[in-house]
Amino acid sequence: MPLNAANKLLYVPRWLTVAKILFAALLLFCFCTTIKANPNLPIYAGSNEADGDIVDGEQKRIDLFDGAEDGMVDLGDSAINAYAQRVYFKLVDSIQRVIEKPDFDVTRKNELREYLYTQLHKVNRANIYSVKRFDNIFRFMLGELNAIRQHQLCGYLNNNVVQGFNTFSLIQNEACVDTFLLFAAKTRPDLVFLNFRNFRNKDYALPVLELATKAAPVTVKRYFNPSDVIFKALKTSDDTVVKIVLEIMAKYTRRSNAFTLIDDIANGRCTIEQADEIGSDPAKFLQAMLRIRARKNPLGVHSLEDDLTIYSLKFVRVLNDLHNEPDKVRFASIERFSAQELYTMVVYSEEEIFTSTFNGLFNRMMVKMAPISGFEFLQDLGDNRFRTFIKMCAGFGKLSTFLQSMTPVYQQMMMINFASGLGDYGDLSQSVEVADAFGSITDPLVLKILRGTIKLEYIKQKSQGNTRGAAIYGLLSNLFVDRSVGSSDWFSSVSKQYAVTRFDKISNSKLFGRDSIDRWLIYFYNDEDGDASFSTFIKTFKDENWNVVDSGTYVIIQSKMGKSVHIYANKSKDEYDGQAALEQVFANNDYEPNVMVHRGHSYYAFKTIEKVRENTQIFVLGSCGGYHSISGIIERSPEVSIISSKQIGTRAVNNPMLKLMAEYIREGKDVDWQLLWNDLDAAVKDNPKAYERFMDYIPPHKNLGAIFIKTYNKMMDL
Question: In angstroms, what CA-CA distances link 508 with 541, 569, 618, 657?
Fold first, then answer.
């Protein structure tokens, strides 16, 4: 056939085609011979299809960071090297093998490879040492893919809503994603708002947004700007409650507290105008919130929880500050409060309430609660935070007193309720309340009831095939192994299947960065005792082993001998500028804090927690720290050791504790929590007031809530 101009460009002589085939065969023969002669040559187990090469190429790029293509990276430590090899090569290879299974069609395979490539591409020379971060990403991705294959994706995502949003682009086209988002709208509406742009064009976007708005009307008002996509979407809604939220915004702007009282407005108990007026009076607002919170599944529940905490703490802080005054003066401001109001102040101020404040409120509540029993009293409150209350009663030595307000039958019913149904919650908050309470319960009868309940619940969860529920009760069974309450054979057997991980010590080597420096990051806040805390802290380190360098808005305390320990702390008077300067120093130099300390009230804690990194090994929380604080820390650093207090921390304990920790590390010792706690006990024993407060501190090896969360996460591979 004659060749036109275009065909001439495409024409390849037959002899050249044959030559190419022979050359390719020769190359293949040489490659196979090389592999046979060199079995250790790295092979990246990706797809045989072209798209699989993009993942293999990224693995090769990472492999060559140390200059050698050998299927591993040299990060200067044998343990870290092995960990990195498992994550960047073996774990990624496992994901590739799952992608190639017939469960996914060609289009989906390509999408998954592209996502895996994108995550691998984020690994660079600066962050390759952050192996934990990428381990969490890849492990969760592998879990998601297996859950998709087993048709269990929704349950897997619901168990870890945060990671579900972090990997949303991976699962956004799965059939059950709308179910996951509806669950998230009720449990974590804040994350739904933050991620709305990722699914705003989906058919389910508006129903999900409406549900989140009804759960957290105070949170959503942050997005009420004319150009915001959330505000625009809500304006198209026909939902009655959403329209009320928008009407409050139109009439009173964001400043109104009427958003929190949405349940009363929507159910015709008051008008928008009346709700706004009530919200301007702290006492009336608190009473209105209490009435709403006692109902089952009220609208705006997340906003109610937040505002009840804020307003309860306002009253409790006043009572705490008056701790040296006579009771008549100290408790004058709350003498007219009802039993329900006093209860609410207690359970919503858990993170800051003093023992003496708790006792004063509890005693007044018990008097005003009569003649009804404690069981009926909790029922009237809708059992709101009743597990928190029981835990606090146990911790402050008042559980027996509260139980005596009810008949033996009611006592048994209440404690059964306390330990039942924990697998029904979307997070571990209620399970942690039970675990925390256990350490303070000594009554043999109560322990016997809890023991029987946990056993029955475990059997029930197991028979229903509920892996999550079985894990929760399996872990709780560990609490009874060493307690002399009946036979322990069954509990010993089950606890072996759900062994609790011990967190007794941190090896010294884990506390140092790549440059062999242990870095601390301490946040001070400009509150009423911030100056005194900061100045006494600095004085603690003025000796021959340490040097204090003043850097303007912050200081650096450096060890002079032994191992290199650098402690960075902002000056309390320079809360904003000092903290910003420290964060800039850490960002510019790619530092990660090995130890973090929060020196301030609990309402500042979230600011410090947000700065936790995956290599943070120790976190000192100035106050008690409820479930969300502790889980937020562990979420960012899975193996972190947490020190907290049942009350607000005191410098009389904090300063010697931090100095002891610093000396342990400087001297090259492992941080053995039992030994350090014994040393701290001896250091503060001569100061009666400090020692009394020290007894409220919870060391990492006795923090049952934190231990429970970390062990559960490892067990469920979260």
Answer: 20, 22, 12, 17
Query: Greater confidence, 495 or 248?
Result: 248
Say if strands 505-506 and 517-524 run parallel, antiparallel, or are unpaired: unpaired
| Gap between the Cα atoms of 525 and 287, Å rounded | 31
Least confident of 134-138, 282-286, 615-619, 647-651: 647-651
289-300 pLDDT, tens per residue? 988 987 888 999
Mention every residue, 6+ apart, whose C-beta is less than 8 A from residue 260. 217, 218, 279, 285, 289, 300, 303, 304, 307
With a cut of 80, say whether residue 371 has pLDDT above it.
yes
What is the rounded CA–CA span in Å between residue 702 and residue 602?
Answer: 21
**Which pLDDT value is given to residue 582?**
94
Please list, in sequence order, all residues whose beta carbon lies within 8 angstroms of the beta carbon of residue 604, skipping any fewer than 6 positions away.
523, 525, 527, 598
Q: What percent of the chain has pLDDT over 90?
A: 48
- Interacting residues of 122 by C-beta distance below 8 A, sequence separation 6+: 134
**Residue 67 host element (H or E):** none
Closest CA to 135 of 74, 90, 96, 79: 90
Please check whether residue 447 is in contact with residue 482, taking contact to mean a CB–CB distance below 8 angstroms. no
On whether the CB atoms of residues 516 and 526 are closer than 8 A, the answer is: no
> How far is residue 474 from each of residues 269, 436, 456, 711, measured CA to CA in Å?
45, 16, 11, 11
Task: Determine the 3-state secondary structure of 30 from DSSP.
Answer: helix
**What does the pLDDT average to over 203-227?**
95
Q: What mean pLDDT, rounded, does the chain reach?
A: 86
Q: What is the 3-state secondary structure (H, E, C) of 645-693?
A: ECCCCCHHHHHHHHHHHHHHHHCCCCEEHHHHHHHHHHHHCCCHHHHHH
Q: What percent of the chain is predicted at pLDDT more than 70? A: 89
Parallel, antiparallel, or unpaired: how do β-strands 641-645 and 618-621 relate?
Answer: parallel
- Rounded to 5 degrees, what angle do the CA atoms 430, 432, 433 make? 65
User: Which H or E run includes 602?
Assistant: none
Tell me the average pLDDT across 582-597: 90
Q: Which residues pair with 71 in a beta bridge?
A: none
Helices 408-419 and 386-395: angle between axes, nearest 10 degrees: 110
Long-range contacts of 611-614 (CB under 8 A, 24+ apart): 611/521, 611/523, 611/583, 612/636, 612/637, 612/640, 613/130, 613/637, 614/130, 614/132, 614/133, 614/136, 614/638
Q: Give yes or no for a cis peptide into 371 (omega within 30° of 0).
A: yes
Q: In this model, does residue 2 exceed pLDDT 50? A: no
Q: Are residues 190 and 213 in contact, defined by beta-carbon separation less than 8 angstroms?
A: no
| Residue 493 burial (10 A CB sphere; 0-12, 13-18, 19+) | exposed
